[in-house]
Amino acid sequence: MKINIKAGLSAAVAVTAVTALAACSSGGGAPASDSTGGGGGGGGGNSGYTFAMITHETPGDTFWDRIKAGANQAAKDTGSTLKYSSDPDATKQAVLIQNAIDSKVDGIATTLVTPDALIPTVKKAVEAGIPVDSFNSGLNFYKQAGSLVHFAADERLGGKGAGERAKADGATKILCVIQQTGSVALEDRCAGVKDSFPNTENIQVNGADDAAVTSALQAKLSQDSSINWIITLGAAQGLDAIKAIDGAGVKAKIGTFDTNPDAAQAVKDGKIQFFIDQQPYLQGYLSITQLFLYKKNGNILGGGQPSLTGPSFVDSKNIDQILPFVKQNTR
Fold first, then answer.
1. Which of 156, 256, 276, 295 has its CA 20 to 30 A from that of 240?
2. pLDDT in tens, 85-111
3. How far apart are CA 194 and CA 197, in angstroms?
4. Cβ atoms of residues 13 and 6 within 8 Å
5. Which positions ≥6 away from 86 have C-beta within 8 Å?
6. H runs (alpha helix) in 79-180
7. Between 80 and 27, where is the model more confident?
């Protein structure tokens, strides 16, 4: 089964229009990756807008480099200032959102990885007259939060596709690896895998510690010889799974959500069967672009409906086409 859901036409048109606003780009490196915030922007004049992007990034997870690269480029293209901050702890992420409210930013883009913990603070931003859009996590919760629009992949659909691919490849039992407790997006991914392949077992690991992930997976594989497929929900865990298979001395195949240059190369080398792409660069770019367009023109992409940036599968058939974009940090 091939799933390839692209962002809506209205989003594509908006991206083209905003890109055309910038005659040139200047200044602004990648936004800061820690919770102290950072800056970016300046191309195509100065809009005077300051936007905050707040995520649940785990330090060292290179997936977020693409989110930030897209957001930083959008800030440049719209002549806006970008302040980036993150914390994987939901309570601390909510504090960062409150800090953005207190600093009276012109708009907030945030992930909704743990909706119950974040939505009350997001609503405070909306009540204060600060437009909010959401991305990456929380597809089923963004309207409740008051977000204008949501940019993300359909995670459960991606999981279903992963389960179907593993089933067609002779899976007997799938191990689905969840690297962050409480993440609704990760739970949806594994639920989707189980929808299409019921003999799926979830395992919870500490995604902030690669050695611990490898050890946990190796122990599980040594204990349960019926597992011959592993679905990981992040590129780093996919690479950890390769080490775990080697350490356990078993034969198993790996599919993963998301990617980084090493995981993409592992698909090229046949060590990972596929990765499921949600185009994080596009999520970062559209989130900041949407806030700019709303402040400038009152525009809302997709009429307020979610704008899907994935899922799509990258495997041996199309990795040569995609790999250069991954290495350039622009996928």
1. 156
2. 999 999 999 999 999 999 999 999 999
3. 5
4. no
5. 33, 34, 35, 54, 55, 56, 57, 64, 93, 96
6. 90-102, 115-127, 142-145, 155-168
7. 80
